[in-house]
Amino acid sequence: MSIKHVVSVSGGKDSTATLLIALERCPREDVLPIFCDTGNEHADTYAYLDYLELALDIKITRLKADFTEQLGAKRQFIARDVRTRREAVRREVVDAQGRPVQARRPGDGALIFDAAGKPVIKTRKCTGRKVRWSNRAKRRALSVMYPSGNPFLDLCMWKGRFPSRKAQFCTQELKTAMAVEFQLELMEAGHQVISWQGIRRNESQNRRNAKLSERVGGGLWIFRPIVEWTAEQVFEFAAARGIRPNPLYLQGMGRVGCMPCINCRKDELRAIALRFPEHPARIAEWERIVSMCSKRGFSTFMADAHDAKDRRVIFADLNIWTRIEWSKTTRGGQQRDLLIDLDDAGGCSSSYGLCDQSSLEAA
Fold first, then answer.
1. Is pLDDT above 60 for 5?
2. 252-284 burial, b if ≥16 CB within 10 A, otherwise e?
3. How far apart are CA 312 and CA 309, in angstroms?
4. The three-state (H, E, C) secondary structure of the chain, written as one string
5. Phi and psi of 150, rounded to 5°?
6. What is the structure's pLDDT at 169?
7. For 302-328, how does the pLDDT look when each residue is reduced to its tens digit (9 = 90+)?
8. What's the pLDDT band for 173 if we cut at 50, 70, 90?
9. Strand order in the sheet with 213-215
10. How confident is the model at residue 20 (pLDDT cuts 50, 70, 90)?
11. What is the pTM of this model?
């Protein structure tokens, strides 16, 4: 029984280093690099994959999710939705002056406070809006809910919303599920599979406990060879083997997996708007389409908490163009950053210190 080494390649620094290690340690014919195309990528990332194929004399298998079936089922559900029940919601109880009433403990009637010592407000169960799609919302959604061929957009139309930090279904549906399906096919063909992942512990809090290796079972293992590495070690490792980094790292990008990512930093969003204005324009169009597919009538790419009930107010405050303007501010959005206008859209800007390295190489 042969062993296949499946390496998940994103076009980023960590997956590139992982791929190089796999090629050095394993028979080349057993190394299977895969790229899960989200449909929300920069052209430079696609070009970088082509570069890796030529530089390393390999073939990277491109995988892309298809939500045609799910969108068809969602259209049918919306068109036939005749539910009559209403949502059960809880509303705060207020006194005659409109002030919130503090909850009391059953029995002795003592006032209730939470763990932080704040008063707990009394609420009552009420009947909310109908759960059925209104006829107007049906017409709006069904007019645009057709497969576009772009995995990210189709996924969001199907869900009726964009991913968020708490519901980051884009990673599961567009990457994890596609990689697992590829590996399962290999296992069904009689191979054992080692899934190589470019994950580092110091990359984020969520990955601080990542293991070097894990046995999943059924002939599948996970291996993370750079789990203890730093970002600097990753770049140095690739450079020592003559492999240059994705050019997006020289243009202010801290990550290259999506353009933009729903979790991108404030400075990164500002750099994207400055250097690649076509990407925010695409996101704005996606916001229009996904909003039409939402029962609420709006959805924004970068979600955030909002107190307003009017969906038009929420969309105006959280849409991509408003968030870009926010990225140009300091002091929690209270003041415009006066140094923003000094940014050079054409110059090198790397948070990893690669600009100095690239200039030395050019010299």
1. yes
2. bbbbbbbbbbbebeeebbbbbbbbbeebbebbe
3. 9
4. CCEEEEEECCCCHHHHHHHHHHHHHCCHHHEEEEEEECCCCCHHHHHHHHHHHHHHCCCCEEEECCCHHHHHHHHHHHHHCCCCCEEEEEEECECCCCCECECECCCCCCECECCCCCECECEEEEEEEECCCCHHHHHHHHCCCCCCCCHHHHHHHHHCCCCCCCCCHHHHHHHHHHHHHHHHHHHHCCCEEEEECCCCHHHCHHHCCCCCEEECCCCEEEECCCCCCCHHHHHHHHHHCCCCCCHHHHECCCCCCCCCCCCCCHHHHHHHHHHCCHHHHHHHHHHHHHHHCCCCCCCCCCCCCCCCCCHHHHHHHHCHHHHHHHHCEECCCCEECCCHHHCCCCCCECCCCHHHHHHHHHC
5. -100, 115
6. 95
7. 887 676 777 788 888 889 999 999 998
8. very high
9. 61-64, 31-37, 3-8, 192-196, 220-223, 213-215
10. very high
11. 0.82
Q: Where are the domains of the chain?
A: 3-68+147-362, 84-131
Q: Are strands 61-64 and 31-37 parallel, antiparallel or unpaired?
A: parallel
pLDDT of residue 320: 95
Environment class of residue 35 by beta-carbon count within 10 Å: exposed (0-12), middle (13-18) or buried (19+)? buried
Do 35 and 11 form a contact (C-beta atoms < 8 A)? yes
Tell me the per-residue pLDDT of 100-131, one tens digit each, with 9 for 90 and over.
999 998 988 899 999 888 999 999 877 677 78
Pick the CATH number of 3-68+147-362 from 3.90.550.10, 3.40.1170.60, 3.30.870.10, 3.40.50.620: 3.40.50.620
First to last CA, the chain: 50
Residue appearing with tokens 């029995």: 107
